[in-house]
Design a protein that fits this description.
single chain; 154 residues; alpha/beta; Nucleotidyltransferase, domain 5; 5-stranded mixed beta sheet; two-stranded antiparallel ribbon; 7 strands; elongated
Length: 154
Protein backbone atom coordinates (compact mmCIF):
# COMPACT_ATOMS: atom_id res chain seq x y z
CA UNK A 1 0.00 0.00 0.00
CA UNK A 2 1.26 3.45 -0.92
CA UNK A 3 1.03 6.65 1.12
CA UNK A 4 0.75 9.30 -1.61
CA UNK A 5 -0.92 12.68 -1.22
CA UNK A 6 -3.22 14.32 -3.75
CA UNK A 7 -4.30 17.96 -3.74
CA UNK A 8 -7.78 19.27 -4.45
CA UNK A 9 -8.53 19.05 -8.19
CA UNK A 10 -5.60 16.75 -8.97
CA UNK A 11 -6.16 14.37 -11.87
CA UNK A 12 -5.34 10.67 -11.47
CA UNK A 13 -5.29 8.73 -14.74
CA UNK A 14 -5.46 4.97 -14.27
CA UNK A 15 -5.01 3.11 -17.56
CA UNK A 16 -3.67 0.18 -19.50
CA UNK A 17 -3.61 -0.51 -23.24
CA UNK A 18 -7.39 -0.76 -23.58
CA UNK A 19 -9.01 1.10 -20.66
CA UNK A 20 -8.59 4.46 -19.00
CA UNK A 21 -10.14 6.05 -15.92
CA UNK A 22 -9.92 9.82 -15.51
CA UNK A 23 -10.32 10.54 -11.81
CA UNK A 24 -10.34 13.86 -9.95
CA UNK A 25 -9.65 14.36 -6.26
CA UNK A 26 -12.74 16.25 -5.11
CA UNK A 27 -11.37 16.28 -1.56
CA UNK A 28 -8.05 17.61 -0.32
CA UNK A 29 -4.70 16.22 0.83
CA UNK A 30 -5.97 15.25 4.27
CA UNK A 31 -9.35 13.88 3.16
CA UNK A 32 -9.11 12.66 -0.45
CA UNK A 33 -12.32 11.91 -2.32
CA UNK A 34 -11.68 10.34 -5.72
CA UNK A 35 -14.43 10.94 -8.25
CA UNK A 36 -14.59 9.47 -11.76
CA UNK A 37 -14.71 12.12 -14.48
CA UNK A 38 -14.64 9.71 -17.42
CA UNK A 39 -14.06 6.06 -18.25
CA UNK A 40 -12.89 4.92 -21.68
CA UNK A 41 -12.59 1.42 -23.06
CA UNK A 42 -11.33 0.38 -26.47
CA UNK A 43 -12.56 -2.82 -28.03
CA UNK A 44 -9.51 -4.65 -29.34
CA UNK A 45 -11.58 -7.78 -30.06
CA UNK A 46 -10.78 -7.74 -33.77
CA UNK A 47 -7.06 -8.03 -33.03
CA UNK A 48 -7.54 -11.43 -31.39
CA UNK A 49 -8.40 -13.08 -34.69
CA UNK A 50 -5.53 -14.50 -36.72
CA UNK A 51 -4.12 -12.16 -39.35
CA UNK A 52 -2.33 -13.44 -42.41
CA UNK A 53 -0.25 -16.57 -42.53
CA UNK A 54 2.30 -15.83 -39.86
CA UNK A 55 5.72 -14.23 -40.18
CA UNK A 56 7.13 -13.60 -43.63
CA UNK A 57 10.34 -14.95 -45.12
CA UNK A 58 13.25 -12.96 -46.51
CA UNK A 59 15.63 -14.37 -49.10
CA UNK A 60 19.28 -13.44 -48.66
CA UNK A 61 20.80 -11.59 -51.61
CA UNK A 62 23.72 -14.03 -51.69
CA UNK A 63 23.18 -17.76 -51.40
CA UNK A 64 19.99 -19.65 -50.73
CA UNK A 65 19.52 -18.84 -47.04
CA UNK A 66 16.18 -17.52 -45.81
CA UNK A 67 15.25 -15.75 -42.59
CA UNK A 68 11.97 -15.24 -40.79
CA UNK A 69 10.74 -11.69 -40.40
CA UNK A 70 8.98 -10.82 -37.15
CA UNK A 71 5.40 -9.81 -37.77
CA UNK A 72 3.93 -6.81 -35.98
CA UNK A 73 1.42 -7.73 -33.31
CA UNK A 74 -1.91 -5.98 -34.11
CA UNK A 75 -2.98 -6.05 -30.45
CA UNK A 76 0.20 -4.31 -29.28
CA UNK A 77 -0.14 -1.75 -32.08
CA UNK A 78 -3.77 -1.03 -31.07
CA UNK A 79 -2.79 -0.68 -27.41
CA UNK A 80 0.06 1.69 -28.28
CA UNK A 81 -2.28 3.82 -30.41
CA UNK A 82 -4.81 3.97 -27.56
CA UNK A 83 -2.14 5.09 -25.07
CA UNK A 84 -0.83 7.68 -27.53
CA UNK A 85 -4.38 9.09 -27.82
CA UNK A 86 -4.58 9.29 -24.01
CA UNK A 87 -1.18 11.04 -23.93
CA UNK A 88 -2.26 13.56 -26.58
CA UNK A 89 -5.45 14.32 -24.66
CA UNK A 90 -3.50 14.84 -21.43
CA UNK A 91 -1.07 17.19 -23.20
CA UNK A 92 -3.97 19.25 -24.58
CA UNK A 93 -5.72 19.40 -21.20
CA UNK A 94 -2.51 20.32 -19.37
CA UNK A 95 -1.65 23.03 -21.92
CA UNK A 96 -5.09 24.60 -21.51
CA UNK A 97 -4.69 24.73 -17.72
CA UNK A 98 -7.39 22.15 -16.90
CA UNK A 99 -4.99 19.94 -14.92
CA UNK A 100 -3.45 21.46 -11.76
CA UNK A 101 -1.47 18.26 -11.04
CA UNK A 102 -1.43 14.96 -12.94
CA UNK A 103 -0.72 11.52 -11.53
CA UNK A 104 -0.44 8.42 -13.72
CA UNK A 105 -1.13 4.83 -12.61
CA UNK A 106 -0.43 2.21 -15.27
CA UNK A 107 1.31 -1.14 -15.76
CA UNK A 108 5.03 -0.76 -16.58
CA UNK A 109 4.66 -1.33 -20.34
CA UNK A 110 1.79 1.17 -20.62
CA UNK A 111 3.68 3.68 -18.48
CA UNK A 112 6.66 3.36 -20.84
CA UNK A 113 4.48 4.13 -23.87
CA UNK A 114 2.85 7.08 -22.10
CA UNK A 115 6.22 8.57 -21.12
CA UNK A 116 7.06 8.95 -24.82
CA UNK A 117 3.95 11.10 -25.25
CA UNK A 118 4.72 13.57 -22.46
CA UNK A 119 5.07 17.07 -23.83
CA UNK A 120 6.17 20.19 -21.97
CA UNK A 121 2.71 20.87 -20.51
CA UNK A 122 2.38 17.37 -19.02
CA UNK A 123 5.93 17.49 -17.67
CA UNK A 124 5.09 20.76 -15.85
CA UNK A 125 2.11 19.25 -14.02
CA UNK A 126 3.31 15.66 -13.61
CA UNK A 127 3.23 14.33 -10.06
CA UNK A 128 3.35 10.65 -9.13
CA UNK A 129 3.90 7.83 -11.60
CA UNK A 130 2.84 4.47 -10.19
CA UNK A 131 3.69 1.28 -12.11
CA UNK A 132 0.65 -0.75 -11.04
CA UNK A 133 -2.31 -2.24 -12.89
CA UNK A 134 -5.36 -0.85 -11.07
CA UNK A 135 -7.59 -0.20 -14.09
CA UNK A 136 -10.18 -2.86 -13.15
CA UNK A 137 -10.12 -1.87 -9.47
CA UNK A 138 -13.10 0.14 -8.13
CA UNK A 139 -12.35 3.85 -7.63
CA UNK A 140 -12.82 3.74 -3.84
CA UNK A 141 -10.29 0.90 -3.68
CA UNK A 142 -7.84 2.82 -5.91
CA UNK A 143 -8.12 5.74 -3.49
CA UNK A 144 -7.41 3.44 -0.55
CA UNK A 145 -4.47 1.73 -2.25
CA UNK A 146 -2.81 4.99 -3.32
CA UNK A 147 -3.34 7.00 -0.14
CA UNK A 148 -2.86 4.22 2.40
CA UNK A 149 -6.18 5.21 3.92
CA UNK A 150 -7.11 1.80 5.26
CA UNK A 151 -8.54 0.89 8.64
CA UNK A 152 -5.74 0.66 11.19
CA UNK A 153 -3.10 2.40 9.02
CA UNK A 154 -3.15 5.81 10.61
Amino acid sequence: MLKLTFGHGDWIVVCDGARALFIENAGDEKFPNFSTMEAREEDHESVHTPHGEGPGRVYESVGSARSAVESTNPKERAETEFLEEIGARLETSAASGKIPKLHIVAPPRALGVLRHTYGPAVRRVLGHEVAKDFVTTPVHEIERLLTGDAPGTG
